Amino acid sequence: MKLKSLTFVLCTFCIAAVSGTKAAQAASLSVIADGLDNPRNIGFAPDGSLYVTESGRGGDGKDGRCITSPSAQYIPLCAGDTGSIIKITPDGKKETVVSNLASLALTPSGEQAGGPADIKFDSQGNAYYLAGFAGDPTKRDTVLKSPSLAQLYKLDLNTKSLTSLADFGKYEASNNPDGTDVITNPYALAIKGDIGYVVDGGGNTIYSVGLDGSGIKNVATLPDKLIPPDKLQFPTLPEGIVDPTGGAPLPPGYTKAPNGLPVSNQSVPTGIAIAPDGSLTVSEYTYFPYPEGEARIFKVSDDLSSIETIADGFTQLTGVAYDPEGNLYALQHINNAEWKEIQQGGIITGDISGSLIKIAPDGTREIVWNGDGLEAASGITYGPDGNLYISNRARLAKTGQVIKIDPRAAKVPEPNSAMGLMAAGALGVASMLKHKYGKGLAKAEIN
Fold first, then answer.
1. Residue at 4 is within a domain
2. Which of 49, 212, 265, 273 minimizes the number of CB atoms within 10 Å of its CB?
3. Residue partners of 25: CB distance under 8 A and separation at least 6
4. Which CATH number characterizes residue 59's domain?
5. For 396-420, what is each residue's pLDDT tens digit?
6. pTM value?
7. Quick check: 47 and 85 in contact, CB under 8 A?
């Protein structure tokens, strides 16, 4: 189904910034890498070096390697070999470890790329590289000529060789686990023992993969969040638009909002971490129109047989991480629904500030950082030095960053309820990272 061309009229209403923000900013933020193309997830190697995946900026489209974006219907996604993996050593030196990796991004802006998505190391020091995608996997090998996308690899850092461990594109195309539209975007990776766990924001799924080469072991679908369409806030459509879908049938599981825009209710998982008890912690982005205060954090058993909500009331989360004391840090991409603050193609029309929220083992929440340099972030990890490392401006080409936040300084206490969270400052994040009929973030690019 293709949406008719829309020029969204952005709402001028924005949720107020968190009161007491300046007090929260007693914590420190510093930039350790700048000028990156769509930086995504990050991981520390045993030697203390920080590895960063750059999803790249796609291609220029001149070779015809383009498809329709799931999130920006009339801006093409074009493929190119512009993705990379960089290393930042403990003394601050930056070097490119692997270059010319497949990338897919909105053209010509290079925004919202799908490509290098994550890198993590196991207890033996072996590196594993996750390639995202953000689109219809049936066109990956043919139209895009980029078969290396949407896969998990073992990476030999000496030879730069890649050994495929799982092909999520082929799995989605053949099985479509969530039963809706066929879209895949492997977004983040966590490792426990000899098993890799991957969340797919396009397929709304979580996978377990044998790192010994035994392939995909289990897959589970994250639960939908059913909100009546008339309770959601949508962009104002241009005058005269009656049916924004152009009369095309809706995919399975979709409904129509009062203004005709399609709504999916899909989870769109984007972050994953191993919890202190050995279970998996998964964060979600939510579906278009990215309802503020509706994103959840899940506890998932390591065999993927059990999924339960352990925290709610957030807005478009893009990462989770734990510290040694068992505190959970949740990363919000933007503090308001994305369509209010940034247009597809990287045109910033409002405030793209994000937030970092600490959740103590007893459930108490604190805002560690709000705005003031934290913008459109995606990807977070806890460093051996006690700092949190985050990919900042993670959906933009040329201006992406890696930042460091010290969470141990003064913080602003946050109400524990969802309403308190909302009042505390619109802890939200969005991005039409995939609104193929409203699909939510990861299915598109931020992804």
1. no
2. 212
3. 369, 370, 372
4. 2.120.10.30
5. 999 999 999 998 864 444 444 333 3
6. 0.86
7. no
Please tell me the total count of domains within the chain.
1
Round the average pLDDT of the chain to a whole number and report it.
86
Each residue's pLDDT tens digit, 307-320 = 999 999 999 999 99
Instruction: Indicate whether 164 belongs to any domain.
Output: yes
pLDDT band at 385 (very low <50, low <70, confident <90, very high): very high
pLDDT by residue (tens digit) across 178-193? 999 999 999 999 999 9
Query: Which residue type is seen at 377?
Result: A
* 7 occurs within a structural domain: no
- Token reading at 206: 């979580």
- On whether residue 310 sits in a domain, the answer given is yes
Angle, vertex CA 77, rays to CA 221 and CA 87, nearest 5: 75
pLDDT tens per residue across span 419-429: 334 333 333 33
Count the Cβ atoms, other than its own, within 10 Å of residue 179.
11
* CA distance linking residue 241 with residue 246, whole number of Å: 10
Query: What are the C-alpha distances in Å from 2 to residues 52, 229, 267, 342?
Result: 35, 20, 22, 22
Domain boundaries, position 373 = 21-443
